Structure formats: structure tokens, C-alpha cells
Amino acid sequence: MEFKVVINDTKTGKSYQQNIDSEKFIGKKIKEKVDGSILGLAGYELQITGGSDSAGFPMRSDIEGSGRKKALLSGGIGVKISRKGMKKRKTVRGNTISVNTAQVNLKVIKPGSKHLQDIFKKPEEGKE
């Protein structure tokens, strides 16, 4: 199973993307901690903050399971409320990562010895 992983460095405010082909994320839930060595980031500790499925439906931490649900929401991820007291029924995905998950969002809790900027450095183009 291939995931797009977005890693947010909370100190610099930058995000880094990486595609991984691993099943180690399946069954994990939002707010769980993950060892960075799964992604090749030795010494890093990461926390799952969310994600979305292949159709773009966002994951919510307050909905159990991994399937899509039509929830009546009054705010938060996946819904935009325009006036006080308004609620909307929106389709969202549960808080567990499954094979239908396309993107997983992570944030750095404990940094490693090497900076993320150095690890994800793009090779300079046009150098002759």
C-alpha cells in the first residue's frame, strides 16, 4: 500500500512530502506516536495528526473506525460553519488508517540529529 506522507516541522513551519510503500501505518489512529525510522528518519518521533482518503474525504479524530460516515457536524475538520448554531451533515473518514487512506499527516514531536531540511534537500537543478 502506498501512502503520501506529509511531515510538518513545527519549529520551522515547513512541510515535507514523501511517498512510502509500507503497511506499517495500517491500523494506527490519529494522535498515536510513530517512530521516524519507518520513514528513514532515525531519531525522530512523529505524531499522526490526520489524513484523507483517495477521494479527498478528511479523517476526523472523534469518529471511530476506518470507514466513511455521514456525520452531523457543528465545526472542526471537514466542515465550514457560516453562522452560530448551524450544523451540517458531511461525509468524513474515521480516525483509523486503512488501505483506503491516501495521505497521512504527521508532525515532529522529537527531532533527530539531522535537520529535516538537510534530509529532504532537493538536488539543485541547472548547475553546470
Structural features, described:
It is a single chain. This protein has one domain (2-119). 3% of the residues lie in helices and 39% in strands. It has 128 residues and is mostly beta strands. A hairpin with a 4-residue loop joins β1 and β2.
Percent helix, as a range, is under 10%
DSSP strand content: 35-45%
Q: Total helix count?
A: 1
Give the SSE order as H and E letters.
Answer: EEEEEEEH
Q: Kindly, what is the distance between the CA atoms of the first and last residues, rounded to a whole number of angstroms?
A: 38 Å
**Secondary structure tally: strands:** 7
Mean pLDDT: 90
Rg of Cα set: 17 Å
Uncertain stretches: none
How many domains? The number is: 1
* Structural class category: mainly beta
Tell the overall outline. Answer: globular
Q: Quick one: biggest sheet?
A: 5 strands, mixed
Main sheet: strand order: 2-1-7-4-3
